[in-house]
Amino acid sequence: MNFSGDLNLAFPELILAGAALVLLVWGAFSPKSTAALGAAAVVALLGAAVAAATGPLGRAFGGGLIADQAAVFAKVAIFVACAVAIPLGQRWFERRGVNNFEYPILIVLAALGMSVMASAGDLISLYIGVELHSLALYVMAAMYRDDAKASEAGLKYFVLGSLSSGLLLYGASLIYGFAGSTVFSDIAVAVQGQANTGVLFGLVFLICGLAFKVSAAPFHMWTPDVYEGAPTPVVAFFAAAPKLAAMVVFARALAEGFGGAVGQWQQVLIAIALISVAVGAFAGLAQKNLKRLWAYSSIANIGYAVLGLAAGDQQGVQAMLVFMVLYMVDVTGFFACLSALSRDGRSMESLDDMAGLIKERPGIALAMTAFSLSALGLPPFSGFWAKYYVFKAAIGAGLGPAAVIGLIGSVVAAFYYLRLIKVMWFDAAPGVTDAPPAEAKWTGIVLALFSFPVVLVALTWIDPLARAAAVAFGLKA
């Protein structure tokens, strides 16, 4: 083991760990320096992104940490999403008179956990990364202490998250017991294309635990309540970077540890994908609260991402990565717009609150329309290209019937996106909306531009990066 070389490969994680410690001490002695703390956290995240993009590639700590093209792709996207979430959340809390200097620190710690997840090369680092980022998310869900719903959301998330962590740890223990190693490459040698009964049981528990982290059905029960109760900018963060990190570690565990036994986990992923699409599409039809509605939307969209992964080849993993990056743009932008809207000092979160928004706040209404049409999958928005990649990969892997069912689910879900657009454009406004904060308004509008006209330009460099990342997982072409 080359300790110096290992530290070089872990340099992005070292930057975030050091930044979190410094920011924590700084915040403890100067808790009112929230703006400076937030700015320093953003600098640390962007610095970690640069370190990940320009750093060496290889394996460190006995294979427990992997720095490859897949890890680089995921880390840069995760760190940028985290950097965007910090000013959105800080300003939201400030407008409500809440001094939460811990917010940027928790995001840095969550980013550290997600970075470890993206580079996890064995079951131990996988579990450490999952728990580190999850503990930060539990606290963030309940940060708005004056709101009973936020406290309820944090408690529900913690209790159900603990259950999923138990499933994950039990599955990892079974795999270790029967395979004789926690390192994915060693597990792959032990499996040799056909997992025995003990390893198969462990794999099922591992998939269940990871499915909870990405809020895939039928392990989605926490998502609507947590989304509804947590602060809006926190939900914007929940729905973006942590989902990408969990999908990447999902892909790495299956591809590197069980890549030779694709047939044994492919059917499980197909079932999870289709159940998620169905639950997200049909349950979303009954929702009036926009945060709950987009919670079910996220469940359906995770189903599409899992369907790409279920293809079991490089094209499927590439489709999943492209889908998740484009989905992060849509969901972050939508919740940025939602966090900018209020009426008489009250947050606008219901469908009825959006009535006549095009006349009151045309810029935000246009941005929310773009995000809704993108989530629907209408061309040429980013959501269309995301689903195009997934369906193409699924059909190419012989999963045509599953792709057709996914397409039907997308058509069903179109109703609630179009209903939101109809309410914003054609219903009468119930009152005058408050002036939106600049940082949330412009974040939403800029991301809407990315979601619509800029997406074709962005795909010219996202596509080859995602392809290179997919190759790193070692699945068949």
TrEMBL record:
A GO molecular-function annotation: quinone binding
Main location (coarse class): membrane
Enzyme class name: translocase
GO CC terms of this entry: endomembrane system; plasma membrane
Subcellular location: Cell membrane; Endomembrane system; Membrane
Occurrences of domain NADH:quinone oxidoreductase/Mrp antiporter transmembrane (ranges): 120-411
Keywords: Cell membrane, Membrane, NAD, Oxidoreductase, Quinone, Translocase, Transmembrane, Transmembrane helix, Transport, Ubiquinone
The reaction(s) this protein catalyses: a quinone + NADH + 5 H(+)(in) = a quinol + NAD(+) + 4 H(+)(out)
Transmembrane segments: 12-29, 36-58, 70-89, 101-118, 124-145, 157-179, 199-222, 234-255, 267-286, 293-311, 317-341, 362-381, 393-418, 442-462
Keyword Translocase: yes
Topology class, membrane: Multi-pass membrane protein
Enzyme Commission no: 7.1.1.-
Span of the signal peptide: none
Pfam short name (any one): Proton_antipo_M
A GO biological-process term: ATP synthesis coupled electron transport
Family the entry assigns: Belongs to the complex I subunit 2 family.
UniProt cross-references to HAMAP family, sorted A to Z: NDH1_NuoN_1 (MF_00445)
Assembly mode: NDH-1 is composed of 14 different subunits. Subunits NuoA, H, J, K, L, M, N constitute the membrane sector of the complex.
Function comment: NDH-1 shuttles electrons from NADH, via FMN and iron-sulfur (Fe-S) centers, to quinones in the respiratory chain. The immediate electron acceptor for the enzyme in this species is believed to be ubiquinone. Couples the redox reaction to proton translocation (for every two electrons transferred, four hydrogen ions are translocated across the cytoplasmic membrane), and thus conserves the redox energy in a proton gradient.
Protein name as catalogued: NADH-quinone oxidoreductase subunit N
